Each structure stands twice: as structure tokens, then as C-alpha cells.
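Quick one, T. Sequence first:
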Amino acid sequence: MNKVIIIDDDKELCFLMKKCVEQENYIAMIANSGAEGLRIASENSDDCSLIILDIMLPDLDGFQVLQKIRQTSNVPILMLTAKSDEEDKVSGLRMGADDYL
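C-alpha cells:
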């Protein structure tokens, strides 16, 4: 079964996204920090269908996580953020994000 990794420090939002992902018959894995997200992504790289990644994380920011994941994987990454700054979007897409929400 395919997995979706959700990397976000908002635990309530993670719970809601997990519920939606699981309704579509995917396994949802949650990380609440960049370092934890990198670990989970590394451990599940073979069967991960999507990573939903927040930009503002407590230890490593989403851009740092994105760069590290892109060194070893081409899994689709959806940046999920409340930030609407155009520069952030352009930077993320240039670093390898697949889309923004």
C-alpha cells in the first residue's frame, strides 16, 4: 500500500489531513519536525507516493527538508503553507517542489 508523509508542526491540521488521506486508502505518516520528517521519508522512500511539507517547521525549515529529500528522491512534494510570498513559491519550485497549496 502507498504512503503519504505529512510533515507539519500543526498537530491538529496533521490529524485532519491524515483522516482525509486514509479515506483514500493510503497510509498516512506524520512528522511534526523537519528532522523527524527526513527520517520518516528516508525509511519509507520505496513506497511513498507523496510528501506534504510545511515551510515553517521548528528545527529545519521546509526548504532545508526539501533540499535534503531531493538529493536522494523524486517523490512528489506538495508544499503546504500559510505564507503567500511569491519569492517563497519560486524558491520552493526551483528547489524541486512539485506544487504549492
